[in-house]
Specification:
The chain has five helices and eight strands, in the order αββββααβββαβα. By secondary structure, the protein is an alpha+beta fold. It folds into two domains: 4-59 and 98-170, no CATH class; 61-97, no CATH class. The strands form two sheets. Strands 1, 2, 3, 6, 7 and 8 form a six-stranded mixed beta sheet that branches. A two-stranded antiparallel sheet has the order 4-5. The radius of gyration is 20 Å and the shape is globular. The chain starts with a helix and ends with a helix.
């Protein structure tokens, strides 16, 4: 298990080299290919490249009415009063929910004997040649690579949320 310092180290050393061209789709499932590049500890010019996919489910709007239904399942009269209060809060308590599926079976990894900068450059050229706009290159920490990947997903959600909300507003859903 990682310590809090390990988490902070991984978060501080995660860098998106090449972000995906698009945000999470407002009305559909989005699939991102990632290439996570990490240096092996105590080994010069040995780099691990993990290649895989992250699938983002369609974001949804969670309203006070929806939340209150969740609260009431198995609760008594006191919960009904709180649910009524939530429903009265209206727009100020709406928030977005994003769902991600992370499948380790989609991941392959390879050890490359080259400087990290060269490997990142070659991966960028590969993605350019394949014209994969929904692909990303992430630089991270080898031991805590999944933390690095989670940081990417959280940042992607933050980047996408504004666009998703604006799309819902344009369609009169908010």
């Amino acid at each position: 298990m990682f310590s809090e310092d390990d988490f902070h180290y991984a978060l501080e050393n995660t860098r998106v080299i090449r972000p995906p061209a698009q945000a999470i789709q407002t009305f559909g499932t989005t699939s991102f290919r990632f290439m996570l590049v990490t240096e092996l500890m105590d080994e010069i010019d040995r780099v691990r490249v993990r290649d895989g996919r992250i699938h983002a489910e369609r974001p949804s709007i969670v309203t006070p009415q929806h939340y209150s239904r969740l609260l009431l399942d198995g609760f008594g009269e006191e919960a009904r009063g709180f649910a009524d209060w939530l429903e009265g809060r209206g727009r100020e308590l709406r928030f977005l929910r994003y769902g991600f599926q992370f499948r380790k079976t989609d991941i392959s990894e390879e050890i490359v004997h080259a400087p990290k900068a060269d490997v990142i450059g070659r991966l960028g050229e590969l993605l350019d040649a394949r014209d994969e706009p929904m692909s990303t290159i992430i630089e991270g920490v080898d031991d805590a690579w999944e933390v690095c990947l989670m940081k990417f997903t959280v940042d992607l959600i933050q980047r996408s949320a504004g666009e998703n909300v604006e799309e819902w507003k344009r369609r009169g859903l908010l």
